[in-house]
Design brief:
The complex is a heterodimer of chains A (364) and B (847). Chain A has 364 residues and is of the alpha+beta class. Chain A is built from twelve helices and nine strands. Chain A has two domains: 96 residues; 234 residues, Bira Bifunctional Protein, Domain 2 (BirA Bifunctional Protein, domain 2, 2-Layer Sandwich). In chain A, strand 6 and strand 7 form a beta hairpin. Chain B has 847 residues and is of the alpha+beta class. Chain B has six domains: 66 residues, Phenylalanyl-tRNA Synthetase, Chain B, domain 1; 122 residues, Nucleic acid-binding proteins (OB fold (Dihydrolipoamide Acetyltransferase, E2P)), CATH 2.40.50.140; 198 residues, Phenylalanyl-tRNA Synthetase, Chain B, domain 3; 71 residues, Phenylalanyl-tRNA Synthetase, Chain B, domain 1; 218 residues, 2-Layer Sandwich (BirA Bifunctional Protein, domain 2); 88 residues, Alpha-Beta Plaits, CATH 3.30.70. Classes of the chains: A alpha+beta (364), B alpha+beta (847).
Chain lengths: 364, 847
């Protein structure tokens, strides 16, 4: 800071003239307004706000004025410097916004460029359908029971009232374990899990038995020697065929769509009496399309078998109290998958081609 | 079973307007399964045509066609001859043929139009039997005078233009149904008609009833028959009733009547000769298989006995069969074998063109005996099919009577007065039945009167043994061996009312949800899928040489498994002992189909161990005793739940903004640890040497207590070569049952410290042979409880650390739960960590 001007000569302090100050302000505002970038604005600061700028010089002259004039001159110069400063600040703000916006524009990516940094995985649709079926029954208060695939012949056949002479016990249907008389087979259905459950637990029993089963069929478009089933078993007091029908109706409406029901047709199975075939209402055409590819125009699709558990079967598993009755049913997972998702060829389900599973992802 | 509608109408009052489809629906309602509907699909004009001219014209393709002018009367609207191209040659001008005119429709929805072919406008078609759905004959067209040979009524109507549809029975429909094993009686028109009556409520007159026709009483004058079964199966005589009737002087070559022929044809059987046709016809009508012997080729009494060792029989299909001691035989005087009872006859006693005296056999054979013989000799015949499922033992004599009556009626001759009827068939056993059981078991109200009426309608005799209560005594019909207890009768009551009336009621129950093991398996699969692996399923069958290719030693436990007696493929008779056994095959298949980068996983059971002791198979009679049950359960080999994964190629392929990287050992170890981590188990990794892995790139994955969970790493190059897999294939397999057992306890949360963390880096130089896990363990133990995390961020090898050594760079993050750590405290902890590493692994701090 400079000290008081002791050799004061009013004639020489032209810088304090109002016109001169106004001129300096006008020049500064014009320059600020014209600044096109933050750098340019920064470079202008010396000329208009620096120590050598006209207003700074004018400010320095104030000290030379007689006290009576200092206030007015000070006010005038102060206001002028204030106008210039706020012009700089305002312009600075504008230019910063412009810069920021420009950077965002420059940083823009083409988000449509396909970039894959992780391979996508998938569950097998057989697993997904199984899980969905399990969840439907779990929601009804049932539990899931499982068992071995290499199974005792007694549990797979005898306990289910399939005697030694039953046609299903022949080599053309069942895989037998060596040596002859080993008493082991590859289970032909998940029914042995039902027997195991009843041997282990007392009623009430509400179980779903999903799993892999084996029959000596050749692989073709609709058959596979290794396939998946889910069987249901309920044993409780007062269980009737109406409960069987109700459980099946509840199930198909949840898997295939609200309002879809089942139809039972009399049939025969050694392990149930009475027995029935299960038809499911066609969820594609509802029976309205005579050339429907899903149901063949009949409105119904055969999906499995069921019935009231034969008393001999209950007795084999140690349930002899006649107050207990039960029902059982069995349906195929592959068939459900093929029908629900339009899978045309069994080969695709069993050959393990990743392209098949990949279509389904993680939820179906 | 084929049920011609015309025949059904003869037995039961079918609504005249009912279509085949409607009749089928009625049968399905009570438990027969509709297989097909035949006939009724040819639409006219199908008329008699007389060939006026037949001009053979050789074609460029070497084939000769006939350009014919055919008189079809007024059927074409003009009366002019119809020009038709015909490829067959078995006819001459003047012959009467079957002509379908434009607008007509053949089976399979084939509409006939006038069309240009071989240079002519062919306006119709001269039909073969196959084209009309009347058999398999397609060697030539039908010449109507041959077709209707011997049928004077029909021949008289054969003038050009006559409608052939009714004349040839093409308006007749046949319902084909599947018969379930418990309804053997439905392998007869008698049974089908009864079911139709049950379903519709129309009256039914039983053609098999004892009073359906006059039946000659048994006497001692008939052909001698001895029933001498020395080895009954399950205590049941192989033959418990045998009726023999004799017709002498019959013309066995006479044509059977047209109505019988057309019924046989409609039932899928070929008319052959009177003797054969009559036995088949009676079988189709009553369900009783019959056999006709040439009486003059028999020397003595008929003896029914089991086979002796070494006996043989050449059956009618010209196959010489070695008989089994369980086979029940029809023999001539106990010596010459005439037939396998209920299955097939032999050539030596067959009725031939020269036969004049015929012995008709109508017998009742044990279902098990016949079933076993049929299966043993792979002879599923019309007779065996019926005997296996149970033939009505009360219809035997009626059937024999009908057969001899028909033979005499159409082939002349006389019936012997001697009537043989020996044996004592087991009668149905009456049992008590609670008439409220149908209501209780079905969940639909069935009044007592309805229950009784239904049981009587199906043929049972119901006795009111307890007029005040609900109990009745039910004697099942002789043709219903399947009705043995209450639930059997419930099915009858329910099906006759209709299953469609059964209401829908959801039973209420509270369950426990999925088990921990089930949740573990779901989580493991989901985790791998989320890490970019695709789940696949493979058949669990393998061949023994796979174990060699995988490099298993001779005593490797993983060679112990069960062997199938009848594998799908002879080269794959074993059950897999690891999922990788078959997953690798799936990997190769994907690669061969063009997938270069593949990551697969499979979850499932594997077999571990064989069955040292055979599992008992006691005959079903309630729950086996504990010892037997334990023996059954214990004989089943262990089958743990595994999950396996295999990958080859690149994790991600080169692309915009992507650095490609190949799958390697650390991926499979990482997936293993991740599966553990999502289940709350911190799995440990140690180096291991085990086939089929690369000896230097195999990790043993274990629980913190050392329990083995599985292995992961790169496949041995020899295995890769032996299995034709992509180089550097990496694989792993984990036992999910071990993980299930080790997890499940609720994870306990740590209190989170809000004091600041302090980082410090160290580089430790160790011998190349020191595993990183050992260094890490030592650092952790030395750093103490305030070490929050430790990360190995670099491994350096090179001049600065010297040959055979490596430098491991770790970032240690410390955080106290009680205070802010000062720099000096962090330094002290770091020094402790370094000291511990030095002590345990000889590590030195790299300067």
């Amino acid at each position: 800071m400079s000290g008081p001007n002791t050799s004061y000569d009013p004639v020489e302090v032209a810088a304090l003239e109002p016109e001169a100050i106004e001129q300096a302000v006008t020049a500064a505002l014009a320059a600020v307004a014209a600044a096109a970038s933050l750098e340019e604005l920064k470079s202008l600061r010396g000329a208009h706000q620096g120590d050598k700028s006209p207003l700074a010089l004018a400010n320095r002259e104030i000290g030379a004025l007689p006290p009576s004039a200092k206030a007015e001159a000070g006010k005038r110069v102060g206001q002028a410097r204030g106008r210039v400063a706020s012009a700089f600040t305002a312009r600075q703000g504008e230019l910063e916004v412009e810069r920021d916006n420009r950077i965002l524009v420059e940083e823009a990516l083409d988000v449509t460029v396909p970039v894959t940094r992780r391979r996508s995985g998938a569950r097998h649709p057989i697993s997904l359908v199984t899980q969905r079926v399990e969840d439907i029954f779990v929601a009804m208060g049932w539990e899931i029971a499982e068992g071995p695939e290499v199974e005792a012949e007694w549990l797979n056949f005898d306990a289910l009232n399939l005697g030694q002479d039953h046609p299903a016990r022949q080599m053309q249907d069942t895989f037998f374990v060596e040596p002859e008389g080993s008493g082991l087979v590859l289970r032909t259905h998940t029914s042995p899990v039902q027997i195991r459950t009843m041997l282990r637990e007392d009623p009430p029993i509400y179980v779903l038995c999903p799993g892999k089963v084996f029959r000596t069929d050749d692989l073709d478009a609709t058959h596979t020697p290794v396939f998946h089933q889910f069987e249901g078993l309920v044993v409780d007091e007062g269980i009737t065929m109406a409960h069987l029908k109700g459980s099946l109706d509840a199930f198909v409406s949840r898997l295939f769509g609200e309002g879809i029901v089942t139809r039972l047709r009399p049939s025969y199975f050694p392990f149930t009496e009475p027995s029935a075939e299960i038809d499911c209402q066609c969820w594609i055409c509802g029976g309205t399309n005579p050339s429907c590819r899903t149901c063949g125009g009949t409105g119904w699709i055969e999906v499995g078998g069921c019935g009231m558990v034969n008393r001999r079967v209950l007795a084999a598993a140690g349930i002899t109290d006649e107050k207990y009755t039960g029902f059982a049913f069995g349906l195929g997972i592959e068939r459900s998958l093929m029908l629900r998702h339009g899978v045309g060829d069994m080969h695709d389900i069993v050959e393990g081609d990743v392209r098949f599973s990949a279509q389904f992802g993680m939820e179906i | 079973m084929y049920a011609p509608v015309e025949w059904l109408r003869d037995l039961v009052q079918v609504d005249p307007a009912a279509t085949g489809a409607e009749i089928a629906a009625h049968l399905v309602r009570v438990g027969l399964e509709e297989e097909d509907l035949h006939g009724g699909d040819v639409v006219g004009p199908l008329v008699v045509g007389r060939v006026l001219e037949r001009t053979p014209e050789e074609q460029k393709n070497g084939k000769t066609i006939n350009w014919c002018q055919v008189d079809v009367g007024d059927a074409n609207g003009t009366g002019e001859p119809q020009g038709i191209v015909c490829g067959a040659h078995n006819f001459e001008p003047g012959d009467l043929v079957a002509v379908i005119l434009p607008g007509g429709v053949l089976g399979g929805d084939f509409t006939i139009t006038a069309r240009k072919t071989y240079g002519h406008l062919s306006a119709g078609m001269i039909c073969s039997a196959r084209e009309l759905g009347l058999g398999d004959d397609h060697d030539g067209i039908i010449v109507l005078t041959d077709w209707f040979a011997g049928q004077e009524d029909a021949l008289a109507q054969l003038t050009p233009g006559t409608d052939l549809i009714p004349l040839m029975g093409l308006d007749e429909e046949t319902v084909e149904v599947n018969v379930t094993p418990d309804r053997g009686y439905c392998f007869s028109m008698r049974g089908i008609a009864r079911e139709y009556a049950l379903s519709t409520g129309v009256p039914f007159t039983d053609p098999g009833a004892a009073d359906a026709r006059p039946v000659a009483a048994a006497n001692d004058g008939g052909h001698a028959v001895r029933l001498s079964d020395g080895a009954p199966i399950d205590g049941r005589d192989g033959c418990d009733r045998y009726v023999a009737r004799i017709v002498r002087g019959v013309d066995v070559n006479a044509a059977s009547p047209t109505w019988m022929q057309s019924r046989l044809t409609a039932s899928g059987m070929r008319p052959i000769s009177l003797a054969v046709d009559v036995t088949n016809y009676v079988m189709l009508l009553l369900g009783q298989p019959l056999h006709a012997f040439d009486l003059d080729r028999l020397n003595g009494a008929i003896e029914v006995r089991r086979a002796r060792a070494g006996e043989t029989l050449t059956t009618l299909d010209d196959v010489q069969r070695t008989l089994h001691p369980e086979d029940l035989l029809i023999t001539d005087n106990g010596e010459t074998v005439l037939a396998i009872a209920g299955v097939m006859g032999g050539e030596s006693s067959e009725v031939t063109e020269t036969t004049t005296n015929v012995l008709i056999e109508a017998a009742h054979f044990d279902p098990t005996t016949v079933a076993r013989s049929a299966r043993r000799h792979r002879l599923a015949t019309e007779a065996s099919k019926r005997f296996e499922r149970g033939v009505d033992p009360a219809v035997t004599a009626v059937a024999a009577q009908l057969a001899v009556d028909l033979l005499v009626e159409h082939g002349g001759g006389t019936v012997d007065d001697g009537v043989t009827d020996v044996g004592t068939p087991a009668h149905p056993v009456p049992f008590a039945f609670d008439t409220t059981l149908p209501t209780r078991l079905v969940g639909l109200e069935y009044p007592r009167a309805e229950v009784v009426a239904t049981l009587e309608a199906v043929g049972c005799t119901v006795t009111d043994s307890d007029p005040t209560g609900n109990e009745v005594t039910v004697l099942p019909a002789t043709w219903r061996p399947d009705l043995v207890d209450g639930p059997d009768l419930v099915e009858e009551v329910a099906r006759v009312r209709g299953y469609d009336e059964i209401p829908s009621a959801v039973p209420q129950h509270q369950g426990h949800g999925l088990t921990h093991g089930q949740l573990v398996r779901r989580a493991a699969s989901t985790t791998l899928a989320q890490h970019g692996l695709t789940e696949v399923l493979s058949y669990p069958f393998i061949g023994e040489e796979l174990f060699d290719r995988l490099g298993y030693t001779a005593d490797d436990e993983r060679r112990r498994t069960v062997r199938l007696a009848n594998p799908l493929q002879d080269e794959a008779p074993l059950m897999r002992t690891s999922l990788l056994d078959t997953l690798l095959d799936t990997l190769r298949r994907n690669v061969s189909r063009g997938a270069r980068d593949v990551a697969l996983f499979e979850a499932g059971l594997v077999t571990r161990g064989d069955n040292p002791t055979a599992a008992p198979t006691p005959r079903l009679n309630g729950r086996p005793d504990d010892a037997t049950l334990d023996a059954i359960l214990d004989s089943v080999p262990a089958q743990p739940n595994h999950i396996a994964f295999a990958a080859a190629g690149e994790v991600v392929s080169a692309g915009v903004g992507v650095i490609p990287r190949a799958y390697d050992t650390y991926d499979v170890i990482g997936w293993s640890r991740e599966v553990g981590r999502v289940l709350g188990a911190e799995l440990t990794v140690t180096a291991a040497t085990l086939a089929p892995w690369h000896p230097g790139r195999c990790a043993r994955i274990a629980l913190p207590d050392g329990t083995l969970v599985g292995y992961a790493g790169e496949l041995h190059p020899k295995v890769v070569a032996a299995l034709d897999l992509p180089a550097r294939t990496v694989v792993g397999e984990l036992d999910l049952d071990v993980l299930t057992a080790a997890t499940g306890a609720p994870t306990q949360a740590r209190l989170l410290s809000t004091y600041p963390a302090a980082n410090t880096d160290i580089a430790l130089v160790v011998d190349e042979s020191v595993p990183a896990a050992e260094v890490e363990a030592a650092v952790r133990s030395g750093a103490g409880g305030d070490l929050e995390s430790l990360a190995l961020f670099d491994i350096y090898r090179g001049d600065q650390v010297g040959e055979g050594r490596k430098s491991l760079a770790y970032r240690l993050t410390f955080r106290s739960s009680e205070k802010t750590l000062k720099t000096s405290q962090v330094t002290a902890l770091r020094d402790d960590a370094v000291a511990a590493a030095k002590k345990a692994t000889g590590a030195t701090l790299r300067g």
